[in-house]
Design a protein that fits this description.
By secondary structure, the chain is mainly beta. It has two domains: 35-146, Immunoglobulin-like, CATH 2.60.40.10; 149-244, Immunoglobulins (Immunoglobulin-like, Sandwich). 8% of the residues lie in helices and 52% in strands. The chain contains two helices and 16 strands.
């Protein structure tokens, strides 16, 4: 009978007590939860400074300038620009400090809230980009007002046969261009109502309008507005003229 040596028995016993492992050593480690590495990278970085240095609105366009800086271990920044709470643009600057600029059109008359939000970023030597959304962010905001002109019109009877209308304007930027729109409503022919549409008008004009002493009466509804040098328009003001029936020529 074949007999095992003492060394052979020892090998069998050791193999039973300490089984040999297969595969790479890392396979026995728990898998790292998604996002943990990014969280570790972001835990020590922040946007150290964010400022609005200048800004203005002109002709419905908003332009704002500013500066930014990020902390050590961060080498870039993501910038989000909001107007009245709506995201308008996103920018990434691959540098630890510098300037930023936003420009956007379509502003209406009145005040508008501008906000810029900055997130620290890390860009490694391979170009991989990590944006730290959950820590280290900074925001700054400012209100800007788009100036607009205001207009008004008044029509007065200067004689029994004529009426003079006069427009005026204030505010806004620079000089003004006046516009007029008339809605003509002949009393005896309502089917012939006519609207002139907006046309470049003057500041004062006189029209034939015999005074009406009884119904029916012709009516003229006059609207007046101005446009300033920046292209912004005022709201339209309104006046009503009544004339003797037949004045409008129908």
């Amino acid at each position: 009978m074949h007999r095992l040596s003492r060394l052979g028995w020892l090998r069998i016993v050791l193999a039973g007590v300490f089984p040999m492992a297969c595969g790479s050593p890392e396979s026995s480690l728990a898998e790292e939860p998604l996002g943990t590495s990014d969280a570790a990278l972001c835990s020590s970085v922040s946007v150290s400074s964010l400022n609005i240095t200048d800004g203005s609105s002109y002709g419905g366009e908003l332009a704002v300038f500013g500066t930014f800086g990020v902390s050590v271990f961060s080498n870039a920044v993501r910038l989000e620009y909001y107007v009245n709470g709506v995201l308008k643009a996103v920018d990434e600057r691959p540098q630890p400090s510098g300037t930023w600029y936003f420009s956007g059109a379509g502003l209406t008359c009145g005040a508008h809230a501008f906000l810029v939000k900055a997130y620290p970023m890390i860009i490694d030597s391979n170009g991989n980009r990590t944006t730290c959304y959950t820590s280290g962010a900074r925001t700054v905001s400012q209100s800007f007002t788009q100036a607009c002109p205001a207009s008004s019109i008044s029509c007065v009877r200067v004689s029994s046969s004529h009426v003079t209308c006069t427009g005026s304007a204030s505010g806004g930027t620079g000089s003004y261009t006046p516009f007029v729109q008339e809605d003509l409503r002949p009393a005896d022919h309502p089917e012939s109502n006519y609207n002139t549409g907006w046309y470049p008008g003057g500041w004062s004009w006189t029209r034939l309008c015999p005074q009406a002493h009884s119904f029916p009466m012709d009516e003229i509804f006059v609207q007046f507005k101005v446009r300033d040098n920046s292209g912004m328009e005022s709201s339209a003001d309104f006046a009503q003229i009544t004339c003797a029936a037949g004045t409008l020529g129908y």
